[in-house]
Backbone:
């Protein structure tokens, strides 16, 4: 086997503090934050004159979300912030939760917009919320 595990998903953001606070409110833990720059970083990601601040957040089971705020070069936005779920590309990150109604209410109090919710048979309750910068988060509560 060549893949051992998924380490993290990268989300490039403009307002690092707001997005970081959103994921911390959801229940992720800030593992660390640093600024990276220089030619080695540029060669790795295929950009020149790179300077970025990275924040690594982890779920209780160790899965990671890396948030990157580019200082140089400027980040480029493709499409609207509130793109629908069927737009091409990475559209959402989903988390397993307990007490989905309480989680949705907590995230809404933190500024998230409820996109929708449903129950899938007798096995799952699901909800989609849109957080800062249009980030869509799926929430799944296993029933029974």
Residues:
């Amino acid at each position: 086997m060549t893949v051992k595990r998924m380490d993290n998903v990268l989300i490039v953001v403009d307002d690092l503090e707001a997005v970081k606070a959103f994921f911390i409110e959801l229940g992720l833990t800030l593992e660390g934050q640093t600024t990276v720059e220089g030619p080695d970083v540029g060669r790795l990601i295929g950009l020149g004159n790179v300077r970025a601040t990275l924040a690594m957040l982890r779920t209780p089971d160790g899965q990671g979300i890396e948030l990157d705020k580019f200082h140089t070069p400027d980040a480029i936005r493709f499409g609207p912030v509130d793109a629908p779920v069927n737009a091409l590309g990475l559209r959402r990150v989903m988390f397993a939760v307990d007490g989905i109604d309480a989680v949705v209410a907590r995230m809404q109090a933190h500024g998230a917009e409820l996109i929708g919710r449903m129950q899938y048979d007798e096995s799952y309750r699901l909800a989609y919320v849109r957080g800062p910068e249009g980030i869509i988060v799926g929430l799944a509560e296993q029933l029974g």
